[in-house]
Design brief:
Tyrosine_recombinase_XerCD; 3 domains; hpI Integrase, Chain A; mainly alpha; 409 residues; Recombinase XerD; single chain; two-stranded antiparallel ribbon; DNA-binding
Length: 409
């Protein structure tokens, strides 16, 4: 009926009631005390089921059941700290309302916010001055590749804070809008345009490795280069799931998270159903992409000859350490996928590729260079805004040159 979970050094109780899942911190590190409160909660659930205890319609269910029916509502907090606000948010948001990757990113943002603003900051006194001080301090931190943390990263951290603040408004924990009006960010540096291998290679001659990586991050592969790298991976991959993952990325434009989210049932004879991160009106959004011949062959071999079982398309089969335990099948994580990407390419010229996303903008660029209708490209990759379309609307250099020559000679 209910269970305990150790979160850090404190126990929390998880239970279901009325078809909903509830989670509440018990604010104790004592297992004995936690189990005692768990037993009382389970007894109260049995009393409710028997009709001997009635939960009022306006009651906070977890508070009511954990207090043996003596308290209907949570006590109103006269003071709420930054750490408490985030703790409440992560405890009380519905299960599966956010992707695991999104939650992990938000928790990284939380750590930076708490580190700079202080976990004991009275959230009810948060001001624009506090946020501006955060931006100023954060912009002095070391970022990736010898640079300082940029405006784009800081904007995402502030956006996470705003999401949590708006949630707190809905739950009557704070009042008033998030105080970011007038917040100023550091100037952004424009990234180099997406370019082909032949364009980037002469540009990075003589550059330091850190400086050159900024250009290689903007690489997109021609069709023949895409097939060359897939041939390399097919021969060199250490695990049978790696090659089909590369082919899906290259031949569908799917993001890494979308590849890892894939279920076996999403693979049909001619099309692949891609489960997107975004949601429309609370429902998971999807799109369909035709399956190429090479992808069909790669998936068939993986599923028929190597797949360890389970519903996910890409997963590990972990061997049990005991004869009394069965082997465990679990999906591949984002960090594991990136690690295998790097390991597979580390001894080749393709080691300059930063990650899976290179295949996505290569897929889009090659479709655009062949004159594929923009509406079809949007349908394949899930783009909806004109801003994103402009970002990927870059054709191969020789196609551009041919266009100019066809007009001006």
């Amino acid at each position: 009926m209910a269970s305990l979970e150790l979160r850090g050094k404190k126990y929390a109780v998880i239970f279901r009631f009325g078809g909903l899942k509830f989670s509440r911190s018990l604010k104790t590190s004592s297992e004995l005390e936690a189990r005692s409160r768990l037993s009382r909660l389970e007894e109260n659930l049995r009393l409710v089921e028997a009709g001997r205890l009635v939960v009022p319609d306006d009651a906070d269910v977890a508070t009511f059941l954990l207090s043996d029916g003596r308290i209907n509502q949570k006590p109103q907090l006269l003071r709420l700290t930054l750490s408490e606000l985030f703790e409440k948010f992560f405890q009380e948001i519905p299960e599966n309302s956010l992707e695991n990757n999104t939650l992990a990113t938000m928790k990284i943002h939380q750590r930076h916010l708490v580190n700079k603003l202080g976990g004991k900051l009275d959230i009810l006194r948060l001001s624009l001055s506090d946020l501006q001080g955060y931006v100023r301090a954060r912009s002095q931190d070391d970022g990736q590749r010898g640079k300082k943390v940029g405006a784009t990263t800081i904007k995402k951290e502030i956006a996470t804070f705003r999401v949590v603040w708006n949630w707190a408004i809905d739950h009557k924990l704070v009042s008033g809008s998030f105080p970011n009006k007038g917040l100023r960010m550091p100037k952004t540096v424009e990234h180099p345009p997406f370019q082909t291998w032949d364009e980037i290679e002469p540009l990075v001659q003589g550059m330091e490795e850190v400086e050159a990586k900024a250009y290689w991050d903007c690489l997109y592969l021609r069709v023949e280069e895409t097939e060359e790298i897939l041939n390399f991976v097919q021969e060199q991959a250490r695990h049978p799931f790696i090659y089909p993952m590369f082919v899906i990325a290259a031949h569908t434009g799917a993001r890494r998270s979308e590849i890892l989210r894939s279920q076996i049932g999403d693979i049909q004879r001619d099309t692949l159903l891609i489960r997107e991160k975004k949601r429309r009106k609370g429902q998971e959004s999807t799109r369909r992409v035709p399956i190429s011949g090479r992808l069909r062959t790669a998936l068939d071999d993986w599923l028929e000859n190597h797949h360890p079982g389970g519903g996910h398309t890409f997963c590990f089969g972990e061997m049990a350490r005991s004869r009394t335990r069965k082997s465990n099948v679990r999906p591949i994580t984002g960090d594991e996928a990136q690690d295998h990407f790097n390991r597979t390419l580390q001894s080749s010229k393709w080691k300059v590729l930063r990650g899976w996303h290179c295949f996505r903008h290569s897929f889009i660029s090659n479709l655009a260079s062949q004159g594929v209708d923009q509406r079809l490209i949007d349908e394949f990759v899930g783009h909806t805004s004109e801003e994103i379309r402009r970002r990927y609307r870059h054709l191969l250099p020789d196609v551009k040159q041919a266009a100019i020559q066809s007009v001006f000679g």
